[in-house]
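# nightly structure sweep
# worker-07 picked up a monomer target from the shared queue
# config: single-sequence mode, recycle default, output format = structure tokens
# input follows
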Amino acid sequence: MTNTEKTVNHWIGGKSVEGTSGNWGPVTDPATGAVTTRVALASVDEVDAAVAAAKTAFETWGTASLAQRTTILFKFRALLDANRDAIAELITAEHGKVHSDALGEVARGLEIVDLACGITTQLKGELSTQVSNRVDVASIRQPVGVVAGITPFNFPAMVPMWMFPIAIACGNTFILKPSEKDPSPSLKIAELLAEAGLPDGVFNVLHGDKVAVDRLLEHPDVTAVSFVGSTPIARHIHTTASASGKRVQALGGAKNHMLVLPDADLDAAADAAVSAAYGSAGERCMAISAVVAVGAIGDELVEKIRERAEKIKIGPGNDPTSEMGPLITAVHRDKVASYVKGAADEGCEVVLDGTGYTVDGFENGHWIGLSLLDHVPTTAKAYQDEIFGPVLCVLRAETYEEGVALINASPFGNGTAIFTRDGGAARRFQLEIQAGMVGVNVPIPVPVGYHSFGGWKDSLFGDHHIYGNDGVHFYTRGKVVTTRWPDPSEAPAGVDLGFPRNH
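# output follows
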């Protein structure tokens, strides 16, 4: 560790806890390539300590009043709002996204905190009176216990906030395992929760790698696991945690398509394609990475996209003039570049090649320019894989039906969009397309907080989407109580071995 590096430790039982495993991970500034931070990587013993703290806290938090929970969440919401810029600066420093994009991430996370502040309505039960003679039946929902969230690098503040506000509001205690590539925002959030008055152990942060994840998946005191990341890891999380008897929501990868019909406003479609494909350097699970141009509009649409893409300003995220920042690591940058370099050999027309791009004064940063591939065959790796970088593929289809069939053939089903002026076509599309989130003239259809986020097919493993009503149901379990209070003057019913009937 150099004098210029800071250390990021765990947060267990309401305080910062220095890592004891002896294992540390480097955190780089993507704009410079310099290592700025070291992060503790948890051992099995440290995971066990965090789970024990959360289990102890659940004994009282699980029965805390709704008024107490929501009062703390309202205080946290105010602190989060006041610290937007500070959190956004941490995101930019470790992830690389531009400051305005980082602020947008915090704003979307705030939406879920707002939802959690109103959890009293979400947790209202149901009551049926007099279902039989002097018998009432009530349905209630109760917290599940200690829950874990395993989150990706691309949204180090927003994705955790998709999980823990709802989980905590429902009465659970939470262990967050954020990405070790950009860990600082999670520590800032932990500090704000403590400042808001959250009891010790209700929210914990464990930094780590596969060792920490595997222990959380198998730990007998962890009752539920939420995950957002790539499809292979989501499948592993779901299989492993389910085998340990846990409930699991595991959101996987994506290859989001945008279908552009001949009647669409091509300028609006081109604006949307560039914004959705290249925002946050393409490191979004809801990024548009494949445009399907229907009919004769393909050439014109590609030219409009190219014109706009060439004007995007790439630079450090803390430069107010930058529109797109670097990629998270040099390794990831090189992997993204490999798809572009091999595209022509697989039958693609390379309209824009962003590989080899550098920024003056920041030559060691993890830079890559915008790439645009046209006439992409479905057999090309650039189409089949989730690239997670600023590479946009354009495919051609003769008809609406052919375009829908192409999209539905993808193993991914996260989000998709259609651009058209035809209401009938739009209605058909939202019913026929096999994806969990659909946009009509909206390129990134991320649902608002009071709906739920999640895909279909290989983009989701488990039965529940994240946040919204699905989030509340995931972090609680139902209980039905049947009650009979006999009248004091009523004679005993006597023994009856028949199956209970309502009468």
